């Protein structure tokens, strides 16, 4: 049976590109890619057992954390992270025909539109910006239109038979996104980095500081922290953190979880994994 891997679809997304690289890194020989509509659906296909792995974006160097992924992970704390990958993002403006001056609508994923906001303001200030579920879905939706264009990858251009109207159109040349390979099963205790999420017992002065001090007391460096609303009441938050694990402390993650548990209402441990390798191919 092939390894079924869920990712954001349709064909031509950056998620698909990241999935293919991660498949190669995992040395999986028989795989079946399962494109999904929306990031929550990607995670749920894994959580429900329909797929044995999933690939999702977790943060972008320009726009920060991918909130849909964070919310989905909190909803499924039984999942674990196996590997991370940093993928350079180079957006192109794609269309079926015509010139740049004819474009009156630009379609793309909200993150991609935000990553190209400056370029759009300068070159297409009057164009209506329309959000889609993915960059590749935007490319599919502009096929055959003379006044619509999509912000997507060059791979999406090839997949959907489009023309390149401009490249690159992202505002920051170093734009990149970190993707996670998710699976079910036992969490790994050893790796370069570990990811956890937690909610606190109380919304009170010093509560978060106490939890973060716990990480410092374990001698661990926190490389990322994100907050998300708990969705229960205004002003109540969940926290997602990444911590670096020293190679000479094999019990570091286990000890951190034991120390944090009494301070947290809920604690999700997504396990240890190799840190995000940058793919430059």
Mean pLDDT: 93
Query: What CATH architecture of the largest domain would you give?
Result: 3-Layer(aba) Sandwich
List the domain count as a whole number. Answer: 3
The name of the CATH topology of the largest domain is D-Maltodextrin-Binding Protein, domain 2
Give the assembly state of these chains. single chain
N-C termini distance:
29 Å
* Spans where pLDDT lies below 50 across 5 or more residues: none
Strand and helix layout:
Elements: E1 3-8, H1 14-26, E2 31-36, H2 39-47, E3 53-60, E4 64-65, H3 67-75, E5 80-88, E6 92-95, E7 105-108, H4 110-115, H5 117-123, E8 128-131, H6 135-141, E9 148-152, H7 154-160, E10 163-166, E11 176-183, E12 193-200, H8 207-217, E13 222-229, E14 237-244, H9 252-260, E15 264-273, E16 277-278
Parallel strand pairs: 1-2, 1-3, 5-16, 7-8, 7-9
Antiparallel strand pairs: 3-4, 3-11, 5-11, 6-9, 6-10, 12-14, 12-15, 13-14
Helix pairs in contact: 2-3
